[in-house]
Design a protein that fits this description.
The structure is a single chain. By secondary structure, this protein is an alpha/beta fold. The protein folds into 2 domains: about 200 residues, 3-Layer(aba) Sandwich (Rossmann fold); about 150 residues, 3-Layer(aba) Sandwich (Rossmann fold), CATH 3.40.50. Helix content is about 35%, strand content about 15%. Helix 2 packs parallel to helix 3 and helix 6 packs across helix 8.
Length: about 450
Amino acid sequence: MTFESLGLRPELCRALDGLGFTTPTPIQAEAIPAALAGHDLLAGAQTGTGKTAAFGLPLLQKLSTGERSRNPRALILAPTRELAQQVHDNLRDYARHLPLKLAVVYGGVSMVSQANALRRGVDIVIACPGRLIDHLQQRNVDLREIELLVLDEADRMLDIGFLPAIRRILGQLPKARQTLLFSATFDKAIREIAREALREPREIQVTPPNVVAATVTHRVHPVTATQKREVLLKLLSTHYQDQTLVFAKTKHGSDRLARQITAAGIRAEAIHGNKSQNARLRALGEFKRGEVRVLVATDIAARGLDIPALPRVINYELPMVPEDYVHRIGRTGRAGCTGEAISLVAKDEARLLRQVQRILKDPLEVRGLDGFPPDWSFRDGNDLGDDRLAGQTPVRRPPGAPRRDGHGHGQRRDGGRPQAHAGPPRRPSGTGTERRAGGSDERRQAGAGRGLRGGDSRRR
């Protein structure tokens, strides 16, 4: 199968050939013909499957014909700044032989240049919902001529709390439009927004939810909490001397870890919600060029990062939401390349690892490290309770013995998410535009899953 056989214009095929793309991915092979035929789509696709081209190519082809207008004819909504910028850059490359104008709008930067671009006239707007609302309020953009709407990573937008903003934007769009919704999951919340936004959609699911790339190798190192930094520095200095993306839970923790790695002689940068957009783009660019060897990121800041042939991801701390593990390691093993997912797991994270294991289903390799004996093992009272962990056997409880995995002490029996609001409230962080545009990663993470109840519509 070729892109020509999918019905794409020669100008698009020539651009793809110049980029080295010759064979469509499964999601592209299914989505492009359906979108070109004018159908609304409810498409399930993980990161790294080529979904940007799956919606971007038919969008560009449809806009390359018809009457031009100063008002945008296509709108793409994305959950994060990085993803919005990435989509913009990809579409710009695909449209290099077409006379189409694009604009990207998101928070954290001045609105002036964005407003000027919108007022000069564009064909396609790629936007984060919060900043787009700002431009609508200031009458910088008119959405009444939108012919095609794309909701990219819709599940993440709802997790962040953008549902009210999305509904407000939908109210500004014409009813007679084509809508393409892409999501990693098709849960109840996604089905509800699909009923509101889509008309008789074609449903495409190329991979089951929470499936990770088969090219990624998973490894768990049990360590003590006090060993983590030393273990990470040893791994980076003696084992992994190429590009590595490290995940930490908090903004301040990311900054601190990046400083500690740099102090050990390994250049590192951090990206998170308190960094300006220019600082985040600079750090990402240096990482892609190899000038920075280690990038430390929070979950939200790393969403949508496209780093070609990234060899590995290290979970310095496990995510509070197990599905975020899938999104994290989706940064590696992309486009058929191999990758590694390394997790440093302390005793108090055993429950989180058990939840990750439930959604992955395949065995996780557990390997101790020489010189770093942990103060716990998966065979003690905090074992994972899953005998598919490679080389591990769970403890069998005597009849009637109480469980020690947290059941009855606040954890749900169905393996549900830990209560994100536990602990003392965090003070707001960031100032000016940054605070209005998004606030802290931690507070936004705490809003996960609450979109249908109003959620947190603070802007990104």
